[in-house]
Design brief:
Elements: E1 2-5, E2 12-18, E3 23-30, H1 34-43, H2 46-51, E4 54-56, H3 60-65, E5 71-73, H4 82-94, H5 109-125
């Protein structure tokens, strides 16, 4: 799982990435707290919640939501979250609303979400 900035409003883009295929299999917009992460976790199919490991940075919300036996926290620079960081960078290049100080930031959360969904769907189709 990973996170990235969602513009100037205090919204973060939380991502679930399938490491082998680099496919985005889940995402949500929200604060940096536990609630959006818990929502994202509960929206995953049972297979992901029971049989996968989750490599994350050491953000404290992960330890409170993800099961301890599946959670693999990795220190900054450890390399386990580099795939998510690369995908965040790729998404920022493709979608102006993900750039922090952008003139293209959506004023409507619905439009913001729709634009991100289109970019993520397109990203997954190009894999």
């Amino acid at each position: 799982m990973g996170r990235g900035r969602g513009g100037d409003a205090a919204r973060w883009l939380w991502l679930v990435i399938e490491r082998t295929r680099r496919r985005i299999v889940g995402w949500t917009l929200g604060s940096r707290g536990q609630a959006p992460l818990r929502q994202l976790w509960q929206s995953r199919p049972v297979h992901y919640r029971r049989h996968c490991w989750f490599f994350t940075d050491e953000w404290k919300a992960y330890a409170k939501v993800l099961p301890r036996w599946q959670h693999r926290p990795s220190p900054k620079g450890g390399g386990q979250t580099s795939i998510v960081e690369a995908i965040n960078c790729s998404l920022r290049q493709r979608c102006g609303v993900l750039v922090r100080k952008s003139c293209s930031f959506s004023k409507s959360l619905a439009m913001h979400t729709a634009r991100i969904k289109i970019v993520i769907d397109n990203y997954n189709l190009t894999l």
